[in-house]
């Protein structure tokens, strides 16, 4: 198990550009705002989408294309750092015009309209590293904890410094 504590948060409310790809849009937003750790939710509608199912034996995503318009009934995800740059991981429940749903790992989603709420953990950095057992790139939480501890030490030092030196 890995565990990390996040004490401070910032909120970002975003209207996603029409015709952009949802994952690409959030990724570039994370890059331009220097987001290193966060979670998000999104609702809205997609013109078409591609979702994935992770084959646990073969360690690869099986893809399902949804070529018709979809409501984003629910989309949740997170932002962390993979190979030095922000990486967006999102899952979505998508509903067609009959209300029938398909759900999975969101690979692509052409946005008709979407509203995103990002919760950023500005003092922290979540880093992914390859995990042999799953073949996935998972959070390296020991590293997250040590960066958090480092900040605590630094905070304590600053507090102590201002107490002593004013
Ligand atoms: Zn996933």
Shape: globular
Structural class: alpha+beta
Q: If classified by CATH, what would the architecture be?
A: 2-Layer Sandwich
Radius of gyration equals: 19 Å
CATH superfamily grouping: Hypothetical protein, similar to alpha- acetolactate decarboxylase, domain 2
Bound molecules: zinc ion
> Separation of termini?
42 Å
Q: What is the residue-averaged pLDDT?
A: 92
Proportion of helical residues: 10-25%
Q: Which fold name fills CATH's third level, the topology?
A: 60s Ribosomal Protein L30, Chain: A
H and E string: EHEEEEEEEH
The tally of structural domains comes to 1
Strand residue percentage? over 45%
For the biggest sheet, the summary is: 6 strands, antiparallel
Number of helices: 2
In total, the number of strands is 8
Poorly predicted segments: none
Determine and state the CATH class. Alpha Beta
Please explain how this structure is put together.
This protein is of the alpha+beta class. It has one domain (10-165): Hypothetical protein, similar to alpha- acetolactate decarboxylase, domain 2 (60s Ribosomal Protein L30, Chain: A, 2-Layer Sandwich), CATH 3.30.1330. 22% of the residues lie in helices and 49% in strands. Strands 1, 2, 3, 4, 5 and 6 form a six-stranded antiparallel β-sheet that branches. A two-stranded antiparallel ribbon has the order 7-8. Strand 4 (70-82) and strand 5 (85-95) form a beta hairpin. The longest helix is centred in the last third of the chain and has 25 residues, at 141-165. The chain starts with 9 loop residues before the first strand and ends with a helix. The model has no long low-confidence stretch (mean pLDDT 92). The site of zinc ion (ZN) has 3 residues, from strand 5.
